[in-house]
Amino acid sequence: MREWTILGAGALGCTFAALLKARQQPVSLLLSERHRGHFHPAFEFIGLNERRRLVSTHPRFAEQAAGIDCLLVMTKAYQVLPALTGLRGLPADTPILLLHNGMGVAEVVTRVFPHNPLLAGVTSHGALKEGPWQVRHTGKGETWLGPVNERGKDFAHLQPLLATALGHAEWSEDILSRQHRKLAINAVINPLTACHDIRNGQLHEPRFADVLAQLSEEVHGVMTRLGETDTLAQFRRRLNSVIELTATNYSSMHQDLAHGRPTEIDYITGYVLQHAGDLPVPVCRQLYHEVKKQGG
Ligand code: KPL
User: Among 190, 238, 255, which is best to mutate for testing ligand 1, by the most ligand atoms less than 8 A from CB?
Assistant: First the structure.
């Protein structure tokens, strides 16, 4: 592979670009039309050690899709399809690695690009945009990737490249399960913090104890229905540890709602509702409608 192309020049996309470039791995940023003519050839990256450096990137636009070797998709979930449908010239052997939050997108990407190797990943790195072209890496996390279709299985060699740059990356043939685990955490923390206008850590205040208990039970029930084997107690332990580790953060859904941006509710809570079958999920449903009502 000659070059990574990152779709989604948000905080996390730029952080991955900076970390890959720091290991001399070639990176280009695939930009949307609104950046044409307004693109900064470099962004400022603030590392975990507070060191600042200028990262110069090679911009690409949709009409240059034919030259993409490996596509890393790091947009918001609802931006993936509109962005990918503009890439008609993408070669059929270019692997597409979906690293966005939420689920339900891969099924549609498979229909639009039936021949491409498709992979999915989850990452727990934290990043923040401090200015239009200024990005801060706020937390080192773990990254998992694995195949979504048969052709994706030939791309396990991407894992060591990512591990070198990110500090951790592992390959999993059962990436769906990793995605479910992350989705379940997001389905509890994100809508609750967004609707109540609180930081993640405030979920541990006694006033949220009941709703947290009920929502985690609902989400866990749906995950079990999807074949996941974690017990409710194990799920709650993981959930509580993420709440503690990210206590001072505003969740991504909180930030989206607070800034009047669309949220990923359809790909997080919406996914849980779609897979609930006949399980009762009243809190999930109520939060879904509440986020929608607030404009998300
Ligand atoms: O992934 C997150 C998000 O905000 O989307 C969590 C883990 C909840 C951290 O804020």
Answer: 190
Residue with tokens 């990923």: 264
Tokens at 174, concatenated: 């059962």
Q: Which atom of ligand 1 is nearest to the CA of 250?
A: 10
- Segment 112-141, tens digit of pLDDT: 999 999 999 999 999 999 998 899 999 999
Q: Distance, CA 190 to ligand 1 centroid (Å)? A: 7
Q: What is the ipTM of this complex?
A: 0.97
CA–CA distance, 45 with 114 (Å, rounded to integer): 36
* Boundary-marking domain end, from 127, 154, 173: 173
Which atom of ligand 1 is found nearest the CA of 255? Answer: 4
The binding-site residues of ligand 1, defined as CB within 6 angstroms of any ligand atom, are: 101, 185-186, 189-190, 200, 242, 246, 249, 251-252
- Residue numbers of the domain that contains 151: 4-173
Q: Any residues with CB less than 8 A from the CB of 167 and at least 6 apart, and which?
A: 140
273 and 288, same domain (yes or no) = yes
Q: Can you give the pTM of this predicted structure?
A: 0.94
